[in-house]
Design a protein that fits this description.
Growth Hormone, Chain: A; mainly alpha; 427 residues
Amino acid sequence: MPPENPYSSRSARYYAVGLLMVVYTFNFIDRQLLAILQESIKVELELSDSQLGLLTGFAFALFYVTAGIPIARWADRGNRRNIISYAVGIWSFMTALSGLAANYGQLLAARVGVGVGEAGGSPPAHSIISDIFPPEKRASALALYSTGVNIGIAFGFLFGGWLNEIFGWRIAFMVVGIPGLLIALFVRFTLKEPIRGLSENREVTAESNHSFFDVLKLLWSRLTFRHMAFGAALNAFAGYATAGWTASFMIRSHGMTTGELGTWLAAILGLGGAIGVYFGSLFAEKLAVRDVRWYMWLPTITGIICLPFMVGVYTASTPYVALTLSIIPGLLFNVYLGNTLAMTHGMVGLRMRATSSAILFFILNLIGLGIGPWAVGFLSDQLGASLGSESLRTAMLYLLPVAMAWSVLHFYLAARTLKSDLANAPA
């Protein structure tokens, strides 16, 4: 007799993806909070832009992507629900602890702890979603989960902006971190571990286990994956740098306060981004019925649309013109995410999915999250002597449209080999 499927009903499947979306939301609230608080932290702890870029970028990303690979290997063999529960508890505790930091070293250590905890969130969640949704519904399900990125950014900016203005940055970290501990318990006791391969009527056997290097070799042999990964990484370079530095840019160049600015950015990068990432994958699924290459063509087109608006944001002379122009990039930045994840999972075996997500996120986050915010901060420091408070505006103008244009090229090239690489996926 076949095993009992805890996700045989539609309501059970969407409860699971909804709960995982809440987890991902807290992941990004805790991660994004620093962006709206960093000007206050910079003043109190006397930091440079390069140091801020390390906090939000490379130092966080290095531990995030390094820890993500062994955790993903564990998720491809063990109970994914439990791994996610442990991860939420760790990163929430370390976020609350950030509010007690007395110097840069202590804050850096706390953010590293957040990064290690958050490494256990997405790869197991991606694997669970791919096991409970069939391939033709997988991109939109992964995109629905991925809206947690933008919902988290929204609440991070909104809560962080007002909490900082009223209570200060230390209280903001504590208030945001503590609820995650309750979410960890909710995941542990209400989410069920799915049966691997059931949505595709594929059996998982002992021979389905593969080493990390088997998965890496398989993915790297696919030209589509290489272009998708670098396209996603360069898109993330622009997206993470925008999310990490826009608040500072608007405060320095346009004199806005954190409360008003947090509300604007919550709507633009949060609500707008969530709409874009979900409906981008939903439209791709509809179009892919005719041609599967739409999964890559759509982020190619949306990336091209973003470019003139990005230039306009950093050349606008008034704050409200800049914020209005940023609506289109905010809406379209993350259209690639659900499509890229679904196509990556489509190229690998059942016990390779969490590891394939970790490999994709290693490339995406090392370049996007690791280098993006740091590169902007570094260039801003170099231009500071000649441009003063306008150095950050100029650094973002020089770097971010170029990264997006380069991303567009890779997504276009990925579309050319997508059909054949999906057809050659292992059974």
